[in-house]
Amino acid sequence: MSTVNPATNTQTNAASQQQTAASTQPQMGEEFDNFLKLLTAQLRNQDPLSPLDSTQFVEQLATFSALEQQVRGNESLESMATMIGDIHAMFASEWIGQTVTVESSWVPYSGEPVDFKVSPPDGVDSAILNIKDSAGETIWTKALDLSDETHSWDGETLSGIDVERDQIFEFGIDLYSGTNFVGTAAPQVKTTVTNVGNENGTMRVGTSSNLSASVDKVQKVGDE
User: For residue 212, which phi and psi values (nearest 5 degrees)?
Assistant: First the structure.
């Protein structure tokens, strides 16, 4: 599981990019103007009997053109960065506080019940939940009623001693069609979005259950 940057960081980054653009623009503009003044002065003050070599003149014009393109390119990049920051902020405002499901085999236990959903494929008529600790030992198993919309686990164990909080457990849901084993599925944990951030170009959400996922792996409850 990875940590995402808070939505407030997204908004702060957008503001920071705007400030950077504001401070950078005059520097590029000043450099651009100085180059133009220097070239104009050189043309005005050249010796009529020994004018500027045409090759040098072409080279300086090429330098001028390259600088102009760089300035315009920087302006475009700064505008794009500002737009992306604004989009991130808008996106975060639409997700934070939403109840969602995050599919994950590894589930943190904070001491609060872990609520989850199961979406079995067609033909599956029974399911058994198996929970293992970090050592791979099965600590809980239970047949699930697939007619229930939501299932829950509150730290129960086969030994009758509830597990301690702030641990991570492996959830596996064995699916059956009659007596035939179909496969093992991960639960879709119900949780609340607490922050949204950008990680290596991918938008991710962080949740109250300490699970994080890319937005394409998250589903708002009610949108299923």
Answer: -130, 155
Render the burial of 119-145: b for 16+ CB within 10 Å, e for the rest.
Answer: ebeeebebbebebbeeeeeebbeeebe
Note whether residue 33 is domain-resident: yes
Write down the pTM of the prediction: 0.59
> Is residue 136 left, alpha or beta, with left meaning phi > 0 and alpha meaning psi from -120 to 50?
left
Shared domain for 78 and 158, answered yes or no, is no
Average pLDDT, the chain: 79
Q: Is 164 contained in some domain?
A: yes
- pLDDT tens by residue, 52-96: 555 665 666 667 667 667 766 666 667 666 665 556 556 667 888
89 and 114 part of one domain = no
